[in-house]
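User: Structure please.
Assistant: Input sequence and predicted structure:
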Amino acid sequence: MGDSLDQPLVLRSDLDHVATLTLNRPAARNALSEPMLDALAARLDEVDADPTVHVVVLTGAGPAFCAGHDLREVRSNEEPEFRERLFARCSNVMMQLTRLRRPVIAQVAGVATAAGCQLVASCDLAVAGESSRFATPGVNIGLFCSTPMVALTRTVAPKHALEMLLTGDMIDATEAHRIGLINRVVPDPRLADATEELARTIASKSPMTVALGKAAYWKQRDLPLADAYAHTSRVMVDNLATNDAAEGIGAFLDKRSPTWIGS
């Protein structure tokens, strides 16, 4: 639906250690078809293996960030095997975002609905234009947003998540910011610049330290309290043994800017 045969489904552009991945099905509101999910997974693997990339920005071409699954594709493939494979692929991409060593920032313009809202919730950070809107509207068409619920409930408080899931109502960027689904709301014309500023700030840090910290965050958040402290204490010890920690501490004490080594 609406795909261009001569354009990749996910575009990539790089600038100053920031890789921008753009979902490129604008006529289909960047719906997550099976080919789109495969293309996104391949791009994420590509940037994760590229040592020049320190931060990833994920955005969408056209008027929508992502409208979720391609319902025409789902309806035309009634075999349970296809649908099981589709949802497994989508779930794997969402987990891939959290396992990626590079922080991922969602840059949201337009709507992010159903699995598109799941995509925003699965990214590490999110910046949205003031006209953007968010919803998990599956309940409105008799298909509860069960897989989007996983990311949503790990990002916002339970009652906020349940209200979105049970009503299917669209919320605006201000409300999405209030409940913690996104980090920042900016005027629409400022969206790309604001996302770039955030990405550049993170990209200026030690990429090794950022990768270590992101992995530690996702690991500890679902552990019992004592286990979380035990795990992060080990991470701190390992971190202190790195060259970048020695350089950063030395630079701080010497009152100079650090020069990151990357190890």
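The first strand starts at residue 10 and ends at 15.
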